[in-house]
Amino acid sequence: MSHRSLAARAITVGYDGRDVLRGASLDVPAGRRTAILGANGSGKTTLLRCLAGAVTPASGAVELDGEALRHTRSGLRAHRQEVQLVLQDPDDQLFSADVYRDVAYGPANLGLPAAEVRERVESALTLLGIDGLSRRPVHQLSYGERKRVATAGAVAMRPCVLLLDEPTAGLDPRAEVEMFDAVSRLESAHTTVVLSTHDVALALDWAHSVAVVVDGTVVQGDPVTVLSDAELLARARLHVPWPLALAAELAADGVLPPDVRPRNAAELRRALTAGRVQ
Ligand SMILES: Nc1ncnc2c1ncn2[C@@H]1O[C@H](COP(=O)(O)OP(=O)(O)OP(=O)(O)O)[C@@H](O)[C@H]1O
């Protein structure tokens, strides 16, 4: 398994004759963390579904390592071995009676030997910190537990790119930290991670690149630049993340220089003690 780049090139896609995305482009360079932000209904899930090959755009292309995805049976099958999507609601994804069988479903479907399926399931459950749930009936699990099981199912496919649709929505703060611990372990194992979220502070702190879905298109750039753009964020029904908003207020009070752009509490603290970030 190795990092691979994924991209959407000028895709137009909609439902029932109504376009959701109109010529939207997104770049996910290999190994770079990409966060997708946007209002409810803006098209984040639609974009992720296109990247995963689950929805076919009316025009434009999805490319993996520069090669256009072919929406044929074999093209999609090959794509899904490399790119996995974890849906926002785990109940849209889970269907087996118990956790083990659910996580094993994908690898077993690839026709892998039983020993390899077992090894993949066990390592995915360990990576998500849910070894103890292996024999539990899925319907008895809490929402947060089901979310981890759904993620383990995608991880067991050993994708090069993992797309996570709102992975922290509905999780308690500790579970959120644990989800990101799991994401870090995946990155160490050469999986490129893309996620959608409404959490602007999380995107600022975590991502290498931020993409805002707004008015049917995508505005992508480095997190500090994009998330300092109050006009863009207002159009997207988002707000400036607190570290940048607080630094701007402290700059207005003359406490910080105007060009300080902290990405998190630690950077803000450093700026306050040292006079500026870096
Ligand atoms: N299968 C579908 N059939 C018809 N319309 C759909 C379908 N899926 C999504 N839509 C519509 O497309 C638009 C974009 O939906 P999408 O789920 O991509 O948005 P989102 O940005 O992920 O929203 P949220 O933040 O609420 O999860 C919405 O208006 C939605 O109602």
TrEMBL record:
Residues 6-240 form the ABC transporter domain. It is a peripheral membrane protein. Its main location: membrane. Gene3D superfamilies: P-loop containing nucleotide triphosphate hydrolases (3.40.50.300). Belongs to the ABC transporter superfamily. It comes from Rhodococcoides kroppenstedtii. One of its GO terms (molecular function) is ATP binding. The keyword Transport applies. The keyword Transcription regulation does not apply. Keywords: ATP-binding, Cell membrane, Membrane, Nucleotide-binding, Translocase, Transport. Part of an ABC transporter complex. Responsible for energy coupling to the transport system. Probably part of an ABC transporter complex. Responsible for energy coupling to the transport system. This is ABC transporter ATP-binding protein. It is found in: Cell membrane. Pfam families: ABC_tran (PF00005).
